[in-house]
Amino acid sequence: MSIQQKLAIAFSERKRRYFLQQRYPNKFTSAGLYATHAHLFEALEWLCKAQDKSPAAGALYSSYLITGGWQTPTIISTAFSLPAFQKAGSYLKRDDLLQRSENAGEWVQKQTIDNIDDIEADSLAHAILAINHIKSTNPDCEKNIAKLGYGLSKKLEGIDSSSIPQSLTPYSLICLALARADQPVGTKLLKKCQNVDSLFNISEKCLALLAWTDLAITLNLDSDLEQIQKHVEKLMLTFERTKWLAEKPKQNTSDQYCNISGACSLSILLFSFADLANDPRYLNAAFKLNEYLKNAHFDAYVPKTEYGAMRDNDPLHLRKYGGRYSTHTTRLYIDALLAEERYFHRDQQ
């Protein structure tokens, strides 16, 4: 590389950093504004609000919109959030969070067990994975998981796998749910897991990689882990070079946003592969990514009564993309914080 090229790159990097720091002065600070525990407690408190304010006991609202308030509770939003209560409750030794996970699991089971034929495949998959987190404390969960797994397997036989919704429910998550329910995972679906590059955005891609990693470990698919690592490596280098995970909306505009849910998922992946690949680069990138997430957490407008949620997107130009705070993103953010917490306290585990 010539001196002129190096100077051009250095100038471009300096200009880019200045451009971003004028909009978000806390984005690239050397440390988070608050301790990890403070962020963790605030995010958990918001999930508790999403459950307490829901009209259905145990269920969680799917999101909060600045312009529309709380949105309808769903099976997916409740099932997806349940592991956050269970993991945080176990780590923090808080029985109240463990009880919340039980309540969410009870609601999910009531909504799905007696209505399997009417529930879509993606909701069944999320329900199986959620109930699996609390089966050790509830003897009925084992048979319910088996029943839901059988129903999911039969449902997949009757539809084209290409018609399964991809948003929040990648093929790898469907396969993981089947594996958790001791149902056979078809080779067609396993091959679908590899089509990560065909997914629309970084959030879907990272969520697919998370589920695919768990699936590969569960089924001892070493070759799949090697493929996953290549994707993770590429995403890590993208973040390291640009310091964001930029996306553009579907509309043909110049607006951009940083996909927060994708950043949270990537952080969890990086912590996982720091151990799986024994590579300190992943750990270093994970800490940087969590630093950004913590600074983004409290650097946004949200009504005081709903404080603590993580917004879905970090807008770089127009704030309208940052007006949605979902249980999906907040749960992933909690997982990312717990991954960091566990790393620092692994000697005490």
Question: What is the secondary structure topology, with strand pairs?
Answer:
Blueprint: H1 3-21, H2 36-52, E1 63-65, E2 69-70, H3 75-92, H4 95-112, H5 121-132, H6 140-157, H7 171-180, H8 187-192, H9 202-218, H10 222-242, E3 246-247, E4 257-259, H11 260-276, H12 280-297, E5 313-315, E6 324-326, H13 327-344
Antiparallel strand pairs: 1-2, 1-6, 3-4, 4-5
Which value, in Å, is the CA radius of gyration? 20 Å
The computed structural class is mainly alpha
User: SSE string, helix = H, strand = E?
Assistant: HHEEHHHHHHHHEEHHEEH
Number of strands: 6
> In angstroms, what separates the terminal alpha carbons?
48 Å
**Percentage of residues assigned to helices:** 55-70%
Shape verdict: globular
Mean pLDDT across all residues, rounded? 83
Strand content: under 5%
Spatial order of strands in the largest sheet: 2-1-6
| Largest sheet descriptor | 3 strands, antiparallel
Low-confidence parts? 23-34
Number of helices in the DSSP assignment: 13
List keywords for this structure.
globular; 5% strand; 3-stranded antiparallel sheet; mainly alpha
Describe this structure in words.
By secondary structure, this protein is mainly alpha-helical. The strands form two sheets. It has a three-stranded antiparallel sheet with strand order 2-1-6. The chain starts with a helix and ends in a 5-residue tail after the last helix. The chain contains 13 helices and six strands. The chain is globular, with a radius of gyration of 20 Å. Residues 23-34 have low confidence and may be disordered.
Nutshell version of this structure?
By secondary structure, this protein is mainly alpha-helical. The chain has helices at residues 3-21, 36-52, 75-92, 95-112, 121-132, 140-157, 171-180, 187-192, 202-218, 222-242, 260-276, 280-297, 327-344, and strands spanning 63-65, 69-70, 246-247, 257-259, 313-315, 324-326. It has 13 helices and 6 strands.
